[in-house]
Sequence to fold (226 residues):
Amino acid sequence: MKIVAYLRVSTRRQGASGLGLAAQQTAIDALAKQRHGNVIQTFTEVESGKLNTRPELEKALHLAKVTGATLVIAKLDRLSRNAAFLLTLRDSGVRFIAADMPDANDLTVGIMALVAQQEREAISKRTKEALAAAKKRGVRLGNPNGAAALRRAHKGNKASVRAIKAAADEHAHNLKPVLDALQVEGVLTLGGIAEALNERGMLTPRGGHWHKSSVRNLITRIAAAQ
Fold:
């Protein structure tokens, strides 16, 4: 059995660090061993889940088609919300196996694509409604940047700490409607929330990208304020 492996991570930072890739590679290697397969080439995509362009996927599908190989991905559920990926996979005419869903077929993928499209539209609508409600209450969304302002003003350390805490509390309060909307949508894991916030352009209190640790701090801060 010839295998073309396809790996995907969501951000360039994850791609550079290998975060998530090792686990996917392990899953594919295990399936290859189980099926007595030989991985002839591995393609790695580093992109946002909401983008429709997938040059590495197209290369992987082409190679699989011309060699008669089977395309193997680690986790179909990781991509189950992306209609563009699922439709490309379904319409490629290439045999595929997902290590986490080895019995998935064209019908399964087609249904998942329809659900993914509907879910994406629902996510967009709920997020807009949550942000509109927050704005109506007078909430200012975005990076307060309070610490930088204090440093420019040459304030003391105690005042800076108090201001940083106040800014972080306000930022957490501002983002609570967004987290509530994500919870309704079924996005419950720290990694899933981080990815959703990054895709929506939400910043951390210091203007950075979200990670599991920063999401955990955000949830803790919101809980403490209630």
User: Anything to note?
Assistant: The longest helix spans residues 106-136. The chain has a mean pLDDT of 75. Strands lie at 2-9, 38-46, 70-73, 96-98. The chain is about 60% helix and 10% strand.
